[in-house]
């Protein structure tokens, strides 16, 4: 009984992984990949650049110039950054506290307060 559950779990995980890879590739053809196509109402079938041809219309691969040596379009690459805890601001504040502590040690005044500020940071 335990072996059946193990096999079922492995099958479920493998199916999930395969579906995730398939889903990202299946949506690549409908992704945004060239501004000119979007501006012309999605007419990329006839107006795509040589580099976008595999995504819009593979027949356009035959339409290239002598200057078309290399073309690269990454339709599924993106990045998003978020800093909800303001880590960059906290790092700046810690650096400021460290600099105050360093200055206090050099001048030998206010060392205890600067150390307390640094400790409480």
Please trace the helix and strand order, writing H or E for each element. HHHHHH
**What's the overall average pLDDT, rounded?**
75
Q: Give the percentage of residues in beta strands.
A: under 5%
Could you give the count of β-strands?
Answer: 0
Percent helix range = 55-70%
How many domains? The number is 2
Number of helices: 6
Gyration radius (Cα, Å) is 28 Å
- Main sheet: strands, sense, barrel: none
Structural class: mainly alpha
Low-confidence stretches: none
Shape: flat
What is the straight-line distance between the termini? 55 Å
Characterise the protein shown here:
The protein has helices spanning 2-26, 35-39, 44-47, 53-56, 87-107, 111-120. The protein is mainly alpha-helical. It has two domains: 2-62, no CATH class; 87-120. The chain is flat.
Give the structure's gist in a few sentences:
This protein has 121 residues and is mostly helical.
What topology does this entry show?
Layout (H helix, E strand, L loop, with lengths): L1 H25 L8 H5 L4 H4 L5 H4 L30 H21 L3 H10 L1
InterPro entries: Put_conjugal_transfer
Organism: Salmonella diarizonae
Keywords: Signal
Features:
2 domains, Put_conjugal_transfer, 57% helix, 121 residues, mainly alpha, 6 helices
């Amino acid at each position: 009984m335990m072996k059946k559950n193990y096999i079922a779990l492995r099958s479920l995980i493998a199916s999930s992984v395969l579906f995730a890879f398939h889903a990202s590739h299946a949506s690549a053809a409908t992704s945004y990949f060239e501004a000119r196509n979007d501006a012309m109402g999605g007419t990329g079938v006839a107006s795509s650049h040589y580099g976008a041809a595999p995504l819009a219309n593979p027949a356009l691969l035959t339409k290239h110039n002598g200057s078309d040596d290399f073309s690269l379009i990454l339709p599924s690459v993106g990045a998003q950054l978020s800093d909800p805890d303001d880590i960059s601001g906290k790092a700046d504040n810690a650096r400021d506290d460290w600099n105050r502590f360093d200055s206090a040690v050099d001048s030998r005044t206010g060392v205890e307060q600067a150390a307390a500020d640094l400790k409480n940071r």
